[in-house]
Amino acid sequence: MLGLPSLTGCAIDKGTALAADFEENWAGTPDVAKVHTTKNNTLPFKGTSTGTLILKDGTSADRVTKLVGEMREFVARHDKTTGRIAADGITFTVVADEGRTGEVLALWRSLTADDRVSDADINDAPWKGATDRWRIEVTAVDATGALTVFKDMYAKGDRHRPLAGVMVLRVRGPGLFVESDFDDGFPAEAIAAYEAVIAQYPVVGATLRRDAMSGSAVSIVVAEGVDRDRAGELARRAAPNLGAAVEVSSASAD
Asked: Whole-model pTM?
């Protein structure tokens, strides 16, 4: 008799079948508190799924490392399934490539050891043929920590080792949101504008990001009573190439 194709391979709603396969494979795994799946049924007999292992609080780093290895082998065999692990407030994607997965695991270790970080997400994000691409989002405990962590993520040999390949990095904390620039690089001028203002005046909040719609790269809100024009002059002088993309406003009612 001819062998029948697997249920996953011939399912009309393939995303649903992939999700069910993931749940069945990982159900009852020690140290896994919950298995969460999503399904995407794009076309009949075509689809994808994402499965996340949410680990129990206090799961050791050695156990996380072992589960990462098992997950890497799983996604290598199931190319339409994205595997993720959530541990100690950090959620990250595990890919089939052993080197890339090793880098992500190292970053997970350093982020969980950083008391300036409250949570983070590291996601594989290929785009336009660039397969070695990551999107990283970090939440820090405060604005100072957010900027320091952001800088660390780009500093070679510092506390957090940067991932290889193109990287979209976003770090937020109370009073600050900072994002990599349009070339996915370090937004040196945007940060320089922010630091020039905060060195002289109290800042209520700031957004340093790429915004193609408004053209704004830097938005800084200074405290009530601060000379807004002077603060704007400081910011634009520190970021001469950004021009009108630097906006400084006041927290005052007017």
From this structure: 0.89
Q: Mind listing the pLDDT tens digit of every residue in the chain (254 residues)?
A: 233 344 455 567 888 999 999 999 999 999 999 999 999 898 777 899 999 999 999 999 999 999 999 999 999 999 899 999 999 999 999 999 999 999 999 999 999 999 999 999 999 987 766 677 899 999 999 999 999 999 998 876 578 887 877 788 999 999 999 998 877 788 999 999 999 999 999 999 999 987 655 556 899 999 999 999 999 999 999 999 988 899 999 987 55
Chain-centroid distance of CA 253 in Å reads 35
C-alpha–C-alpha distance, residues 157 and 160, integer Å: 7
Instruction: Give CA separation, 103 vs 65, 74, 86, 115, in Å.
Output: 12, 18, 16, 20
The count of other CB atoms within 10 Å of the CB of residue 45 is: 13
The answer for residues whose C-beta is within 8 angstroms of residue 122's C-beta and 6 or more apart is 90, 91, 92, 93, 104, 107, 108, 134, 135, 136, 163
- CB-based contacts of 251: which residues, under 8 Å, 6+ apart? 204, 221, 222, 223, 224
Angle between helix axes 188-198 and 143-154 (nearest 10 degrees) is 150
| C-alpha closest to that of 197 among 143, 238, 166, 150 | 238
| Residues composing the chain | 254
Assess contact for 53 and 26: CB atoms under 8 A. yes
For residue 18, which of 71, 97, 79 has the smallest C-alpha distance? Answer: 79
What are the residues whose beta carbons fall under 8 Å from the beta carbon of 217, sequence distance 6 or more? 181, 187, 189, 190, 208, 209, 210, 211, 239, 242, 245, 246
The letter for the amino acid at 246 is V
